[in-house]
Structure formats: C-alpha cells, structure tokens
C-alpha cells in the first residue's frame, strides 16, 4: 500500500455563499474551480476553490448552510487551516493587503521554523498563511493567471492542518498506526501553559503533508457552525489504492462510509476517536472532467447521477453569479 500523499482538501461551512465567493476569489485570489451542490444535501451549494485547475492539495471547499449558527470554538476540532505562499516576503505583502481590506489578522510569527501569518475571514474562519521559503516536500500548486494577486505572492495550496483535541494520544494513534504518518517534531503553543504542538507528516513531507496536534485542557467541545471546518481529506494515489484503504479500515474494525464516488474524486470517510471527520480522497479524475479548464466554476456543475434533477435542484438554490464576464 502506498503512503498517503498529503492534504487533499479541507471542507468548511459558510452561511453566505456570495460573500464567501467574493472573499476567497477577490481578496485571497483563489480560483473558484467548481460550483456544485453537496451531494448528500442538494439544497446546499458546495464551492471549491484552488489553484489554476484545482490540483489535489490546493482545494479549500465550503458548504453553504444559510441558517448555520456561529461556530463555538473548542476541542475535538479542525481548528486552523493553513494556506501556502512562496516566500517570507509574501507574508509582508499579505499583511499590508489585510490591513487595506480590513481583514482581521495577527502578526508575522515563527512556528516550527517557518514564518506564518494568522487571519480570519468575514465569518471568523481560522486561517494561517505559511511561508514555503525553506520548505522541502510535496510540491505546491500553480496560481491562476487571472488571479488579482501577483504570482510571486499568490496562495499556492494547502499547508498544515491543525487539530485541537483533549486526548491527543487517541488521534496520534490513528495518524501513525493506521494512516502511516510519521512524528516530525514539536513547537511551543502560543497559549501560555499549554503543551507543545506536535507535528506529523506523510508522503514526501513538507508543508503540504503535515498535521499539527494541539492538546487543550481548557476548552469545551467545539460546536460546529459557520466559520468552522467540517472535515479534512488526505490524498490517495488512485482508486485501486482506495480499495486497499477500505480493506485496511475493515481489518482494523474502524467504521467507515466505504467507497463513495464523488465523480471528481473517489472517497472514504471515517471519524477518528476524538470525533474529527477524516476523508481519504483520490487525486483524480479531477475538476476538468465535465467543464473546460478555462471555464471552471462559472456555471452550476452537477455529476451525471444528479444531472436528471437539475431543474429541481436549481429551483431550490439562490442564484450565485460566478461568471467572469
């Protein structure tokens, strides 16, 4: 069995798709690579952002749940999503841009030997820019040429994902014994009196293949809502490998969804012992299987098994203009 290749995507919750589209494309300069629906609830938009073609490891996605309450931050959660940039200099560019656009942000700081810049979107989504200045490992994506952000400063993909848990040993056991992650080191928490944050990596390693585990004993259970993260997905080479992972989880008596065909990729879902939802997702087929590359995200895309219901689905969705004209 091949090792997992890194982070595939992170899926979060928004209550306002139009503002979400505006922030992630106009302010952050990501490309909307797919405007579709949640396949488990077709009344809900599912928006995918990424690099020029939505390469695996660059995808940040959002379910629009219009009546979602605000997330109540706490343990047993995906508490921060990192976004990669090419250099330390890019962080200075972003700090200035955030100030210009009134985006809530912290200061440029070092974490695990890299410079970072924390910030939040308009719903409080916890995000971190991380510099790849000295990074080695999983390759970054390619910024979209029509992005409003200069290429040298553009976001190039997903960086480390932080999990905040009350009992780290249980999550670490799944990461290392089942999923094959390796311990890489640790760094001090920015919360006084809390244990060091532990770092684990998979595949080629580097910022695109890390999970950071934060232990917190001072927080309650997180209540998911707008501004929170629904799940994190890890990269599987292909469908053949996915079936091997399905058999492995069965052998370990870990309950899972089994094989799920998402059309743009194949998936498997399960919860680790602290209740965080993990997904394994194949690198392909990709987001240009049903749309031309130059027109990704401009119209509502439906996988073939939902296409017969298009009129019904569109009637229940509020129009969302994502055309580039």
TrEMBL record:
The keyword Oxidoreductase applies. Keywords: Dioxygenase, Oxidoreductase. PROSITE patterns: VOC (PS51819). This is Ring-cleaving dioxygenase. One of its GO terms (molecular function) is dioxygenase activity. The lineage of its organism: Bacteria, Bacillati, Bacillota, Bacilli, Bacillales. The keyword Zinc-finger does not apply. InterPro entries: Extradiol_RC_dioxygenase (IPR052537), Glyas_Bleomycin-R_OHBP_Dase (IPR029068), Glyas_Fos-R_dOase_dom (IPR004360), VOC_core (IPR037523). Residues 6-132, 157-283 form the VOC domain.
